[in-house]
C-alpha cells in the first residue's frame, strides 16, 4: 500500500467547505488540477465522474462513501490497483476546521504503482486545499 495525507486548518465553517465539495461541477474553478469534470448524477454514493487534468488523460472515478457534512471518498479502480481519496472535515477545539485529503493506493500492484504515480496524484494537495480554504473563508 502507498499512502499520503495533507491537512490544513481554517476559520471557515464545515458547512461552507462542504458546500464547495458537493458542487462538483464547480471544482475546476478552485482546483487547478482539474481542467474539466463530467458528473453522471448528484453528489451521492455511486455517482460516477470523470476528471481531466490540464495535461493528461481523463480519470474515471466513483463516489463510494459520504458522511454528510463530514467526509466523502472517491475511487479510481484500475484493476490491479485502486486509488482511494478521502476528503475529511473535522471540528477543532478552538472553533477552527481541519481539512484533510488522504490518498491510498491498494491492490496487487500498489507497491509498484504507488511510488510511481502517487506523488503525481497528490502533489497539488497543498495548493488545492489552500484554494478551497481561501474560497470558503472569502
Structure description:
The chain has one domain (about 1-135): Alpha-D-Glucose-1,6-Bisphosphate, Chain A, domain 4. It has 4 helices and 7 strands. The chain has helices at about 15-20, 25-30, 110-120, 125-135; strands at about 1-10, 35-40, 50, 60-65, 70-75, 80-90, 95-105. The protein has a 7-stranded antiparallel beta sheet with strand order 1-7-6-5-4-3-2, with helices on one face. It comes from Actinomadura harenae. This is Polyketide cyclase.
Helix-strand layout with pairing:
Elements (H helix, E strand, L loop, with lengths): L1 E9 L3 H9 L4 H4 L5 E4 L8 E5 L6 E9 L3 E7 L4 E10 L5 E10 L3 H13 L2 H13 L1
Antiparallel strand pairs: 1-7, 2-3, 3-4, 4-5, 5-6, 6-7
Helix and strand string, N-terminal first? EHHEEEEEEHH
CATH C-level label: Alpha Beta
Share of helix, binned: 25-40%
Strand adjacency order, main sheet: 1-7-6-5-4-3-2
Radius of gyration: 15 Å
Largest sheet entry: 7 strands, antiparallel
Backbone shape: globular
**Which architecture does the CATH hierarchy give at level 2?**
2-Layer Sandwich
Structure summary:
This protein has 138 residues and is α+β, with helices and mostly antiparallel strands. It has 4 helices and 7 strands, in the order βααββββββαα.
